[in-house]
Amino acid sequence: NNMSDRTKLKIIAEPNDIDDNLLDIIGAEFKFDHEKGLAEWIKNSVDAYIMAGVPDTEQNVIIKLTNGTRDDAMFEFIDFVGMSQLDIEKAFKRWGDPNAANKGSNKRVYGGHGNGGKFYMRQMFDSSNFITYKDGYLNIFGFNENKKYGFAEKYKNKKIEPDQALKMAGINKIIFPAGIKEAILNGKNGFTVVRGMGPSGMK
Hints:
Number of strands: 7
Strand content: 15-25%
Number of helices: 7
Largest sheet: 7 strands, antiparallel
Distance between the termini: 68 Å
């Protein structure tokens, strides 16, 4: 009787607890080059546009490369969708989710497992973050020098006016595609600026 009790034990599932060493091991396997990494960022942006229902002709991205003076060159990648805190929690904080790109919807996206752009940020820069603005709220989330990720202090769901958000992201003076800046200032559009500081191999 004891034997049948033991074979019928019911295991209650717990969420996985992943050690950062696993991310180091998998990250090292990625062997990224910047072209491949930037391609991942483009794919992520296109997916965000598809999810937001933006027609192909209005899907704009800007890649901004800034020379450094002392290990501080910077890659910036800008799109005009934006993420909420919930979007970040659902899609960005999770590793290895095959549905991260479409956030549970049934829209066809380029997708994949949603890790490429994150591993690029984590592995190929001294530090990296993204500044994202949607529906009046600004979030800054990224990886520090020790490859640990999280929200920036005081910048988790911060209520802020659009013009201040553009300044905070350092994109208030760039040349925008037609009508986009106005749409942001009117609260119709958000934006995301992904930023990698000290790119590996070309600082």
